[in-house]
Design goal:
CATH architecture of the largest domain: 3-Layer(aba) Sandwich
Order of helices and strands: HEEEEHEHHEHEHHHEEHHHHHHHEHEHEE
Low-confidence stretches: 1-24, 324-328
Helix content: 25-40%
Radius of gyration: 22 Å
Structural class: alpha/beta
CATH class of the largest domain: Alpha Beta
Distance between the termini: 33 Å
Mean pLDDT: 90
Strand order of the largest sheet: 1-2-3-5-4-6-7-10-11
CATH superfamily of the largest domain: Alpha/Beta hydrolase fold, catalytic domain
Number of strands: 13
Number of helices: 17
Largest sheet: 9 strands, mixed
CATH topology of the largest domain: Rossmann fold
Length: 475
């Protein structure tokens, strides 16, 4: 299990370039998990500290060459989320979201410094991690932070953006397009402001506003939960199966607020009977993660009802799936802390915490945990600066039911953009680029970034069905 998942538990527009052969990137042929085909892997040396060049580190880049030989010269650079996720962690997106774009453009996936194959900051988890208490988990996190001993203050968003420019130059590209998802949208905006001449167009999915404080997510999480409850109440089958859904959820939250619940149950993966502790923090974090994807959110009424009736196994199994208990989990927890403790936690004022957590099931556990963990990372606060205007064309995508970066965040981000379009998927959650007609719209926008994108087809994406019992979603 990666340590970032511990935290999650609680916790002028450029014209279309003419067709031309793009520069062939150097590197080696490689086969990586998540992609059946052979790709190109490139290593790019960058300064560890851009303020004092000298010592270097290596950034891993995965290049999926365009299908057509006469590829356009402006590739699509892909920036993953988190912070803590690597481009090589989301290789399935090549087919799921970027297959149409790749017809004529190289897709370049970058492992941000401290993630994936770019010197990932992480520790091997103890074998009993899924039976540890929250206090033990926090102690293990602190041990991990100390054992890595990395210069965490060198792992900022600004440094990652400068790495992207080094990658562009090393691969011989001129202007590039950017796709940034979730935190990757913050990184992409920062890069576009640092190197405006290098950016042709941006696609931002699950848009983080420049002034958004990542740990302050209570208001958005509660809104997504309320939407799920209302949708269940309006659907006859779901309402009949779970007529007291809100009361059951409130009862569970109240019970856990009084103290953790410990029970004996068979491990969902090994069938070994063992004690499992469900704390208020774990309960809230699991609910939050379930809300990320619409298909998962439609299982929440069943999970809540089962837990209320004393059958916690489905809920625990879902919690375990969120925080994959493997030593090579994809997200880097220490990198998450390095960024958030420097850039977000200093802006997490008592007033913001009070306003954000008021009436939200998410409460203050993440804030409390960060207050305990951030001093161990030993990073200096990064001062927030008002964002400069992005001149390049921007296509923003939002899921109406996103619990972390809902449409209002994109609306705020657009205030610092000269030419922004914003499309909302009404039946979408967090990250919508793979859904329905979205892959086609990405291609259309990148081909003609100054033209309006006709996004009416996104309204045709259906809502998933609710899960009513252990058999899974309704047919």
């Amino acid at each position: 299990m990666n340590l970032r998942d511990y935290l999650v538990r609680l916790l002028a527009a450029a014209a279309l370039a003419p067709l031309a052969a793009a520069a062939a990137p150097a590197g080696r042929t490689c086969h990586l998990p998540g992609a059946e085909e052979a790709l190109r892997c490139v290593k790019v040396a960058v300064p560890l500290d851009y303020r004092q060049p000298g010592k270097t580190m290596t950034i891993h880049v995965t290049v999926a060459p365009a299908y057509r030989e006469a590829a356009r010269p402006d590739p699509l650079f892909v920036l993953a989320g988190g912070p803590g996720q690597a481009g090589s962690d989301i290789l399935p997106m090549l087919d799921a979201a970027f297959r149409r774009v790749r017809a004529t453009r190289d897709i370049v996936l970058i492992d941000q410094r401290g993630t994936g194959l770019s010197g990932k900051l992480d520790c091997k988890s103890p074998p009993d991690i899924d039976t540890m208490t929250e206090e033990q988990v926090d102690a293990e996190t602190l041990r991990c932070i100390a054992s890595i001993g990395a210069p965490y203050d060198k792992y900022t968003t600004d440094a990652a953006a400068r790495d992207i420019e080094r990658v562009r130059l090393a691969l011989g590209y001129g202007q590039v397009n950017l796709w940034g998802g979730s935190y990757g949208s913050r990184l992409g905006q920062h890069y576009a402001r640092l190197f405006p001449a290098s950016v042709r167009a941006l696609v931002l999915d699950g848009v983080a506003a420049p002034d958004q404080v990542i740990p302050a997510g209570g208001r958005d999480a509660q809104a997504a939960l309320e939407t799920t409850f209302r949708q269940c109440e309006k659907e006859a089958a779901c309402s009949k199966a779970f007529p007291a859904l809100r009361a059951e959820f409130a009862s569970l939250a109240d019970q856990l607020a009084k103290g953790p619940l410990t029970m004996q149950m068979a491990d969902p993966r090994t069938a070994q009977v063992r004690p499992v502790q469900i704390s208020s923090r774990r309960f809230a974090a699991t609910v939050h993660r379930v809300l990320y994807a619409q298909a998962d959110a439609r299982s929440l009424p069943f999970l809540i009802h089962s837990a209320y009736r004393g059958r916690w196994e489905p809920f625990v199994a879902r919690s375990n799936r969120d925080a994959d208990f493997s030593a090579d989990g994809s997200m880097s927890g220490p990198l998450y802390l390095a960024v958030v403790c420097a850039e977000d936690f200093p802006r997490l004022t008592p007033e913001l915490v009070a306003a954000d957590t008021r009436g939200s099931f998410l409460g203050t556990p993440l804030v409390t945990q960060l207050a305990a963990l951030c001093p161990a990372v030993k990073v200096k606060p990064v001062a927030y600066a008002a964002p400069a205007t992005i001149a390049a064309p921007v296509l923003m995508l939002s899921g109406a039911q996103d619990p972390v970066t809902p449409p209002r965040r994109a609306t705020d981000a657009a205030k610092a953009m000269k030419a922004a379009q914003h499309l909302v998927v009404k039946n979408g959650g967090h990250i919508v680029s793979p859904l329905g007609c979205a892959p086609r719209l990405l291609r259309e926008f990148l081909d003609f970034p100054t033209r309006p994108v006709a996004g009416a087809c996104l309204d045709e994406i259906p809502a998933p069905t609710f899960q009513l019992n252990s058999a899974g979603p309704q047919p």
